[in-house]
Amino acid sequence: RSRRTCWQVRGKSGAKEEYLVYPTHYCSCRAFQWDVLSKGEQLICKHMLAVRVAEALDDYNSVDIDDALLAQMLEAYANESA
Fold first, then answer.
1. Are 6 and 20 spatial neighbours (Cβ–Cβ below 8 Å)?
2. 23: how many CB neighbours lie within 10 A of its CB?
3. 65 — pLDDT class (breaks 50, 70, 90)
4. Does this model's pTM top 0.85?
5. Per-residue model confidence as pLDDT tens digits over 34-61
6. Do 66 and 1 touch, CB atoms closer than 8 A?
7. What CA–CA distance (Å, rounded) separates 65 from 52?
8. 22 near 10, Cβ under 8 Å?
9. Angle, CA of 8, 64 and 5, to the nearest 5°
10. Under 8 Å CB-to-CB from 48, ≥6 apart: which residues?
11. CA angle centred on 18, ends 7 and 51, rounded to 5°
12. Which of 18, 19, 26, 67 falls 20 to 30 Å from 11 in CA-CA distance?
């Protein structure tokens, strides 16, 4: 096991939108791609901030998955954003 940590964060519209977040590196939302990466106007997006708040409050659900399932999840997110 790689022991990597990533998060699934629900968007404000609930279960319809879920974003993949690597806490200090990446979020699959458009705001991260546009405001953080492209324009450089923000340091993080609101989903990355939500992860930090959840960690600080110790208010989140944790699930251990193997690397094969993580790879499938990453592929699914990549296909959704393409």
1. yes
2. 16
3. confident
4. no
5. 999 999 899 999 999 999 999 999 999 8
6. yes
7. 21
8. no
9. 55
10. 21, 23, 24, 27, 32
11. 35
12. 67
